[in-house]
Amino acid sequence: MNLRSKLAIAFAGVGAAAAILVGVFSYQAASQRINAELDRSLLTTSAEVAAGATQVLAPSPVTRGPDDDDHDEAQPMVAQAITADGTTRPVGGRPVHLGVTGDDRALAASGALGDHRYTDFTAGRDDYRVITVALGPGRGAIQLGIDVDESQHVLKGLAARITGVSALVLAAAALAGWLLARQITRRLVRLTDVTEQVSDGRLDDVAVPTGGRDEVGRLATSFDRMLGRLADARADQERLVQDAAHELRTPLTSLRTNASVLRRFAELSPESRARLLDDVHGETRELTHLVDELVELATRRYEAEEPGPVELGEIAVRAAERVRRRSDRAITVSADASALTGQAKALERAVTNLLENAVKFAPEGPIEVVVRGGRVEVLDRGPGIGDDDAARVFDRFHRADGARGLPGSGLGLAIVRDIALAHSGSVFAEPRPGGGAVVGFTVGVDRLLPNSHPGHVDG
Q1: Number of separate domains in the chain
Q2: pLDDT in tens, 140-155
Q3: Pairwise CA distance, residues 446 & 424, whole Å
Q4: 223 lies in which domain range?
């Protein structure tokens, strides 16, 4: 059973329950009102009969159909007197002997004036509502009965009408429930179709039915955003695989060439052997570095690091010391006391990549690191960055024309960009006045801690 059927049945059930409850309460209220009116009428009439006004017992003519009872009176009455010793005599009305119980005789013998009790009595096919009223101690009682068949006929008609109305309400509730369920589930059905298409592998040409401010509309909007991110992620993944395949082809081709040369290793001169081994060692090192960069970029391992308080100045000092040991280059750090909530290892990796990039492109001259207000700059005196390259320097595997022969994976600055974006920041690359380049990143203002203050951390 689908959701639409369940909702329709639920609406119909609620409507039926409401109709039944209203019908039952209406019938009970009507029955109680009629019975109360009968009892009040009996009490009033019994007082008149006790006073000798027996004409009130005369029946009223009524027109009946062929299927009705043989009587031609509307709710005829019957009255009899009960003496103190318990005997009865007819007073008027129908020639029917009303049943007398021990309680009735006791009421006739010793009841105070006006004491009364009600009972139900059946004589043949007729039902009566009977009242016994005491006339005073030792004076007997008056017993008055009224035929309630007409009242029961009215109640049966009322019950039939209530049943009919309840059936109509049930049908109307079922129809309304089906229409409402159809309206409610229409967008859910379309959204289900979209999810089935996505599960079959389609992402790009799937239209999500968005719209509305209710829960279904919010779900569709969220699903549309999620689908867009999935499509972008798959596109990035395919582009990464294609770029990686292209970048891996060069070192693998070189290694394959060197491997074929190694077959004639004994024929080579000592100088050629040394150059060949150095070339193989360099290519394997570059290949290992490229694979490591690919794995880190694809898996985003730095995103698993728990964020905490970080001082950018200390991060820059540690990164500069590491690159200084590796390259034996002069690197200076000038930083304020900017602190933020971030991932220390990831930020240190970003600064290290910027410094290694500067070392590679600026083989001479000092390298400077400047940290101010959540902005990290690495300055060098290399050949600089052209306008065309400045817009693409952080793309994966991008290499400027002058860097084709330089070592590197082409992924270092792409990782810097991802780390900066993960910290609500951005990246930049621009020429440096007097020659060289300024490359760096910023962190989001919302990430900076309120206790950050100007100062210097030099290294």
Answers
A1: 3
A2: 999 999 888 888 888 8
A3: 8
A4: 215-296
